[in-house]
Design a protein that fits this description.
Number of domains: 2
Helix content: 25-40%
Shape: globular
CATH superfamily of the largest domain: Methylesterase CheB, C-terminal domain
Radius of gyration: 20 Å
Structural class: alpha/beta
Strand content: 15-25%
Number of strands: 16
Number of helices: 13
Length: 355
Amino acid sequence: MTTAPIRIFIVDDSALVRRSLTEIISREPGFKVIGSAEDPIAAERKMQPEWPDVIFLDVEMPKMDGITFLTKIMRERPTPVIICSSLAGKSQELTMRAFSLGAVEVLAKPELGLADFFEAQRPAFIEAVRAAAGAKLKTLVSNIPAAPMPPVKPKPALRSASGRLIAIGASTGGPQAIEYLLRQLDETILPIVITQHMPENFTRAFAKRLDDLMPVAVKEAEHGDVLLKGRVLIAPGGRHMRVKRQGIELIVELMDGPPVNRHKPSVDVLFRSVVEAAPEAALGILLTGMGNDGARGLLEMREARYATIAQDEASSVVWGMPREAVKLAAVDERGILPLEKIGATMLHFAAHTRQ
């Protein structure tokens, strides 16, 4: 039996972007670009006869912006959407809003050198399409249980954590899962370090959005940041983040270098560094995502006798990374948890590790 191709539609006001994306995607067996349009109004008209499986969507466009169109799609005909957004200013903030509306993935595009950029980044775009095509939109948009927003109040004072931490890795579906988890936390939480697969510059907007919404302090990590109780550090796109011991403190260091498991930052790099830093207590959590990044690092954490969790299949948008961790026995059966139970487990871990 022949498998039907993944049908893709591209919405972008740049003819060069539409042409370049069509070229790199059409070369992949099993992928079919069924059309493109310069704005959402034209796109909706063209998509009606044959609705796509995946939509590439720009954010800033004439006639209707991408955010408005994304909202309309998710309300009327939910479809996996990949935001392909400029690295420039306002696009970053709008892209973060797109995640809250149900976008599956974000990919960056530069202002110049587009053709060469798309060719160099072709593997990332192909992987994003595969992840989007297999994403469970019902889980992403509807089935993630709503966590009540805590009342707005000043951020807690940051305190030393005596060598204890929580490390989290995520990819496709991760921004929504991370936001859900952080809403459940309070000032008693241990330092949290997060590697979320996301392009350079967008991680800063992601951290800012979370800091504005959450009861804990959130920031894009800087080289030398100290791990402190009540603070979340997010690895910047384009840099690996490691945990390192410096005297009695734990800090993060940012590194260049080649991608690991095709990602930079890589979850494996973060998790392995936790083992090397040898904190007194640590919890490793691998959330939804495509591929296998983080699975072996989580196994190394378990072998070092640290606690480990993998998000379960039912609550994952894409059960790729957590599945690989389960296959490697990086978690035991009690460590395979639905998203709605992971936040409570984090708080319990923080309360019951040695002060």
